[in-house]
C-alpha cells in the first residue's frame, strides 16, 4: 500500500471520528442503519429532562405515569456523602423494557437509564449522586405504560457540589 493511500485513509478516519464526536453524525448515519432503538436519543434529550413528564415525552410517550407496588426501589434514608448513594431497583411488571432513576433535586435529574433486554431480569443496583434531601424515583416502561416507585434520601454533604 502506498504512502498516499495510508495518509488518505488516516485523514478519512480522523474526519469521521471528529464528525461523530462533535455530534454532526450519529452511528446510524455512519453505518447506514439503526443499531438499537435508543440511538434515536443520540443527542441526549432524555438526560437533559428536568421533570419526569419531560423524560417520558423524550422517550416518545405521552408523559403519563402511575405508582405501582410491582416496582421496588431501595436506598438508604440518610447518607453522609451524597456522591455515592447506593440504589437498587427491581420491576416485577411483565414486559419491562426500560428503567430510569430520577432525582429532581439534582442539576441533571435523570441519573441513569437502562434498556432491559427481553428474557433478562429487570433489576439492577448502582450508585448515584444526590444533591440534597430529595425524592428518588424508579421509572419503568412497559407496553401498558409508565410506572414508578419512589423513596426519599437525605444527605448531609451534597454529592453534586463536587
Sheet/helix structural class: alpha+beta
Give the strand content. Answer: 35-45%
CATH architecture name of the largest domain = Sandwich
Q: Quick one: CATH class of the largest domain? A: Mainly Beta
Please tell me the total number of domains: 2
Order of helix and strand elements from N to C terminus: HHHEEEEEEEEE
Could you list the spans in which at least 5 consecutive residues all have pLDDT below 50?
A: none
The tally of beta strands, per DSSP, is 9
Report helical residue fraction.
10-25%
What would you give as the CATH superfamily of the largest domain? SoxY domain
Q: Tell me, rounded to a whole number, the average pLDDT.
A: 83
Main sheet specs: 6 strands, mixed
Fill in the CATH topology of the largest domain.
Immunoglobulin-like
Rg, rounded, reads 20 Å
User: Counting H and I runs of at least 4 residues, what is the number of helices?
Assistant: 3
What gross morphology would you assign?
Answer: elongated
Distance between the termini: 51 Å
Relevant terms:
3 helices, three-stranded antiparallel β-sheet, single chain, 2 domains, six-stranded mixed β-sheet, Immunoglobulin-like, 9 strands
Molecular structure report:
With 162 residues, this protein is of the alpha+beta class. It has two domains: 35 residues, no CATH class; 111 residues, Immunoglobulin-like, CATH 2.60.40. Helix content is 19%, strand content 36%. It has three helices and nine strands, in the order H-H-H-E-E-E-E-E-E-E-E-E. The model has no long low-confidence stretch (mean pLDDT 83).
